[in-house]
Serine-threonine protein kinase, putative (Entamoeba invadens IP1), 1059 residues
Amino acid sequence: MRCILFILLVPLSSSFLCSKGCSSCMADYTCNTTCSDTFDDDHTCNSCKWSSPSALNPVAYLKNSEGQCLKSNSILEKDKWIPDDQYIQEIFPGIPNIISFDSETPLDYSFCRYPMKYRVGKWFKINMTDITNRFLLAVVEKDSDVIISIDMSNSKRDEKYGKCLAHATSSKSSSNVLIKGNFFPGNYVNGKEIIFFTFFISTDTLKTVNATFTVSFSLAQIRDNTTIISQKETDEMAKNLSLVKELKLSFDSIGMFFFPSCMPTFLSKLVVFTITFNGNYSLLLSTKRSNKVNYLHLNKIIFTNDTLTAVCVSMWSGTKMSMLESEQDGLSVRVRGDKNEQKYSLVTQDYYSEILFTYQVICPNNCYAENGQGECLSSEARCLCKSGYGGDDCHLLCYYHDNWQIKDHDNLCYFGSNKCDQYCKCESGHTLQNNLCVSNSCHDNNKLDIEECKRSEYGCAQNCYCDTANGFFYNKTSLKCQSINCGNNKIDQIRWGTNSFKEEECDSGVNCNDECTCIEGYITNPDNNTSCKLKSIGGGVIAGIVIGGSVFVVISTTTIITVILLFINYKQIDIEVFKEQQPTFHYYINGSVNCEPNKESKFEVEPEQLDFGNPNSATAIMDTRFEKIDIKNRSRNKYMMIIFHTLNSPKYVFHFDPQVVILKPRASRIVTCYMTIYCTTKLKGMKIPYTVWFSQSRGTLNEIALLLENKNFETWNNSDQKYMDKLSKSVLKKYHHNLIMTTDAASSTHIDMDELSISEKPIAEGAMGRVYMGNYRSVPVAVKQFRWENLNEEEVAELKRNVITECEIMGKLRNPFIASYMGSVTYIPQVSMVIQFFILGSLGEYLRQEKEDYVKIPYKLKVRMLFDTSRGMQFLHENRIMHLDLKPDNLLVNSLDCNSACSIKITDFGTSRFTKKSITNSEDKGLGTPIYAAPETFKDEYTFAGDVYSFAITAWELYYQVEPYAQLKSIFEIKRHVEEGKRLSFDQNIPPLYKNLVEECSRADPKDRPSFDQVCNSIVKIDEDVNNHLEEGNQNERMVEIVNKRTNRIQKQINSFSE
């Protein structure tokens, strides 16, 4: 059995969502043609073309309000980070300034969040030299639904780069955007140095916008709160400890700039919130889920002469501290109740970050710590209780170690037994019986799905769970209760319940099963009581059988009649049954007339056109729908049989209930057709045949149905035909016709396998499988087949489940730097995934001189490729996905233009696992490629920091374009080299910032490696320094040659494959 990964670029349906730059899509926002001229041709067609400001005749491409990218030559000329003074308007405190953006407004680029990217914008400056009130408020009021950004700098004109002192962005719907805060440290004294703050106010949309810009100043003070956590709210949360409240904080648009009292030398952005509660519980504040470094400050607010001062009381750092905590940066702070209002600040130095702030009540009654009953474990958001104490608050357990710890326990259940809560009370839906909680179903000698056994069964306690108190456990293989003594090779007397005893029938002997009972048809062997022997029947028994047989016939007849009557009045429907394929009936139409139902033919089938309740819409995949069909026999004296010949395909199931109907003269019957679709496939117009037979003998019709069942054209033989000829003499009329589908399968990511094909020889091979060339509707595909060999049936089933889970995860991932997932095939054993196909192949094909497409990649493009990789990995890690095999071969080249919106897309994280914790078990051993593997993976420890290490090796290889550890002769030498703390060497030519990044990412201790958030920030600085490290020579012609050659090569392969 094999799992196939398809990488393709093909049109699946015209109903997919498409960007403005694309004419048709094969998946949501994935174009199957080239993008429009003004859009970046990255398959998404969602980003405008990028043009370099350093170009000889620069042009810019911006979107208008309709989403179309328009070309503009109206560009502001400048040779520094800031334009000449004639383009900068000086403003003054408290005076509104009119701003108008239109098609004539010159375009420029900022020094903050959007460097080197043209925007519609205007420049302003304000003289700060004589400003005494330090709290600045810069506000842009706008009149339209565009996104406006404010960037602020205190850099001087002659500096090489403009420093991004502050940044803020509005939402479309908000009426304003503002920057507020104090940008001078507390000990700052102006020696009358002339200081200007420069503002760049911009938007990325070509649209007429009118706005006003005002800068004002006031005394420094902490003003409004982002949120207030009140006594009423926390008291309600204390009633439900599972409740976790969330607050999404986008620092791009909220917060104030300050030099916080707890970090007085670091300009930071912060949001302030108030906590007011006093109770016998704690509050847990956390930002762990965002996996970003931030800080929490507790401040004491002091008013002096109308001036507000924040004094630092406590500070908590959100940096990772240990391996157990290391996979998530962020805060986790326990706050105790206080009768006074507490003012907190959430602080970050990443002005663009989005933080998910959560809070919940933990440790009620303070875990009775004052009585020594327990302590609050904030890292796990619960109480850690001493022996004999438990529950949410470490109260005295009513029942502990098989003993009651309280006197009055008549109406209590055993703590620790199923459905018994922490106070020894039964949960809702259960009643107390002999100190156990029993469901209504269990009481009636049935069992719920979550229960283990019926109470009448061997080893089952009264609550329908195995009787652990008397040494029984649930055997997950046999799905029965089993004694712990079974298997000791001796016969034991087993007790369960209150007064029930049973002796084992056998134990570990011949014909003895895992439950120590004899297999069916065997009894205990008296000569060896641990084994079983075949039952024998004596003469007396035979006589008893004869006598008892007569009695049995009477009783069974009565029972059957009773069951039939009950069945008529009650029929429980299991919807899963209708998702199963039905038997095939041979479509025998010899001598049959193709005839629509009518009066002359004496039968009716209404309706014949089936829409399953979707007359004007498509039917969703995996949805089971039904249509009722009225069948009537209009004959006065003949029986009629109708057989629905189902189409057995794994793509869909049409299940008729019943499939074969025999009607008396003048009778009718409702047949229900259930339809389940498993992939997007052609349904509309499809026909389901049925045959109609008339005879005066009901028995003849039954015989015909039995003869046709489980037969088809290939298995139908001469013997069958002779018997049919004999039966046909009693058949008076035969007809055949079709039901017609009028609905269709909805567009989805579930792909029809029949439209995919692959070549015989692989074009690439890796640790996880082989890659083949293929096609889909004459469009090239790359097909990856995972290695399934050497796996047993259970391992194959588990791997299939994991791959299907990966398909579901990837279907939800949309990011410019991740190869877009477009579909999967999951309805057959060969589970498949469908993602983009890239003509330029993988980065690994360009790095080595022995490769056919080797090219000396320009340093600027190398930095861009690293940046795109880090942003893709940042996205994966934010979604708690480890790659586990990051290397050049798994980086697909989207463009060889360093100015493209996207140069690299990450693929092949099928070996990754969706996780919330580090993988430390042995199930995922050997993940990744050894050359790129982090040292801890040699001990089967897989963490997010391992991906950062792989990134370091990839970055080194990308810079030098040679194989890492080429001087070492084997994988074992590489492992030993790395475990000894040795790393890849550098020469003197590598830029210092680039070298530092590789060294930081390849540190031995995982917790010392940066996160991909930090890696992205580091590469921004490397990019700012890139012009100081440009190489001689131009590789553009060589790269154009490679693109053309690869395109021609792919086309030839497609042509040969299609022939």
Remarks:
- The longest helix spans residues 539-569.
- The mean pLDDT is 83.
